[in-house]
Amino acid sequence: MNYEIKTADKFRYVEEGSGEVLMLLHGLFGALSNYKDQIEYYKTRYKVVVPLLPIYEMSVFEASLGGLTRYTNEFIELMGYKDLILLGNSLGGHIGALYTLKHQDKVKALVLTGSSGLFESAMGTSFPKRGDYEFIKTRTEHTFYDPKMASKELVDEVYEICNNRIKAIKIIATAKSAIRHNLRDDLEQIKIPTLLIWGKDDTITPAFVGEEFSRLIPGSQLHIIEKCGHAPMMERPEEFNALLDAFIAALPA
User: Fold this and answer.
1) How many structural domains compose the chain?
2) Which long-range contacts (CB under 8 A, 24 or more apart) does 65-69 make?
3) Structural domain of residue 69, as residue ranges?
4) Is 1 part of any domain?
5) 4-43 confidence digits (pLDDT tens)
């Protein structure tokens, strides 16, 4: 998977295809590779946009959910996107929900999968230990129903992050800010079509979190995928894309 990383001002992003904008927001430990199946599947019908969130480039003082949401807003403003289909996983879902709450005129539909914002147990019950490769491997496998999804490349990426002191500090600061910014009292304000896709075996944002999002967002649709963990778009891409297809097809013109 080789995509051109484009730049505009301070922003780095992938933009594949043309047409209606489908924007994909990755999570705290996420990366472009998390959405390879969606990029390939949708780029023939949509303009698929994946901004590379600057989690490790932001200053320690800016490393927060608010800072990343502002960054996303600035990117969308610069690019002039409107009538977005906005999809986010984990922290990316949290950012997408916050952006939508403030800019419902710009978002045509919202898709959340394994989103933080109500409850999350990041990497299990503790932050990965620096220098302990096996511990980090186990915690990364914990993200999925099938531990084989945690490839050596993915484990190595998490290991590198956890052993870089500055990156680790920014991860912790961002995660803490997300926990502080609970969406429970705000979600009823979302009035646009919303799709929720959760893994039944998600141990980070368990299925009951998806049910709570569904209860709080008026008219939202919830689908729970069997034998699936925290990243349904990676672990069950065909089922995930089929659910998204059906949702988009039913949207008002």
Assistant:
1) 1
2) 65/91, 65/94, 65/95, 65/98, 65/174, 65/177, 65/178, 65/181, 66/177, 66/181, 68/95, 68/174, 69/95, 69/98, 69/99
3) 6-249
4) no
5) 999 999 999 999 999 999 999 999 887 788 999 999 999 9
